[in-house]
Amino acid sequence: MLKSMTGFGSATQEAEGLTVTAELKTLNSKFLDIYCRIPKQYSDKEIELRNLLTHKLERGKVELSLNISRTADLRPGVSVNRPLVEAYLGDLRQTANGMLLTIPDHELFRLALQQPNAYLTETVASPESASGDWEAIQSAVHEAIRRCDEFRQQEGNALEVKFREYIAAISDRLALVDEQDARRIPAVRERIRTMVTDLLGNEDFDQNRFEQELVYYVEKFEISEEKVRLKNHLDYFLEVLSTEEANGKKLNFISQEIGREINTIGSKANDAAIQRLVVQMKDELEKIKEQTMNVI
How far apart, in whole angstroms, are the C-alpha atoms of residue 70 and residue 77? Predict the structure, then answer.
């Protein structure tokens, strides 16, 4: 079963006074590349999230975004920044004395409390709510991963259809190559016969050279083995495509072997019609190689 590296999944989980939205995007990448955008207070959980994504998504450029909002069960924590307020108060008192002003301390204290950063304010959840945050986050992330995986499978199914179309197109051209090869062989045979006649008519005829030349031309123009190997590679590609172990790297390796046989057929055939078919097969093969880069 094929899976694409392109995917998307989003899920929202609501707990008591907490709403967690996890959004997951995956794109093509040679390796697994994970980027997490999560609230700072949960940064200690990033390694655990990365391990989860590594186990479930295997390969690709992965971007996880977590949006967390709390709608209830809040405990506002507000405290006076005492060292700073004391510094403000001392400075105000010295300033008043230096200007020979008599200002009551409670007035100076009120002014000190009005200065910047005189208060430390942090909105925190109660311990009871905080204990359930991680469970809600995990639930949202798991669901986002499940939906992203479904998206990848759907894209993989579409890719499989395309791969089968490309392989069928190459197979059709190979059948035409086989037909053209049958017409090409008589011409090759006649060419070799002419060469042999020229050699036999030469007074300096060398039997050893004759045999070497004959073997050379037979090997040079013969493409039967290449056609058989190409057919086997095409069948193997479809076989792997139907297995659970199908992956982009393996399919890419097979496509490289397909390319080698196509190139050899083109170089040995020395026939214009077959060359055109070879170009068409290469075009289909490039589509296969491009799409294997998007398969996990």
Answer: 15
Residues 140 and 67 in one domain: yes
Among 4, 36, 37, smallest CA distance to 149 is for: 4
CATH code for position 263: 1.20.120
- Euclidean distance between the first and the last CA atom of the chain, given in angstroms as a whole number: 10
Do 292 and 255 meet the contact criterion of CB atoms below 8 Å apart? Answer: yes
Q: Is the pTM of this model over 0.70?
A: yes
Query: For 251-274, how does the pLDDT look when each residue is reduced to its tens digit (9 = 90+)?
Result: 999 999 999 999 999 988 888 999
> Do 166 and 193 fall within a single domain?
yes
List the beta strands (DSSP E) in the chain: 7-15, 18-27, 32-37, 60-70, 74-80, 119-125
- Asked whether residue 259 falls in the same domain as residue 176, the answer is yes
**Structural domain span for residue 49:** 7-72+132-154
